[in-house]
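An example makes the point: we print one protein in full, the chain in one-letter code, the fold tokenised, without further comment:
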Amino acid sequence: MLAMAASQFSFLPGGAGAAEVGVGSLLLPLMGREQAAAAVLVWRLISYHLYLAAGAPLLLLYSARMLRQR
């Protein structure tokens, strides 16, 4: 939650990378560098990329439905 809040204060568009840096910096005191990097990758996969994979077919379905109505 802290890392997601930190991404709101990023100067990059959409907070790109700020959430990952925030999570990584919070995990570094608890585990090694490689383990923290792996945890950040898994966290980002679950919190972002799976939503994209689930939402893409729905977007295509609703887009096709709207185009057929026209």
In short: The chain is about 75% helix and 0% strand. Residues 2-69 form one domain. The chain has one domain: 2-69.
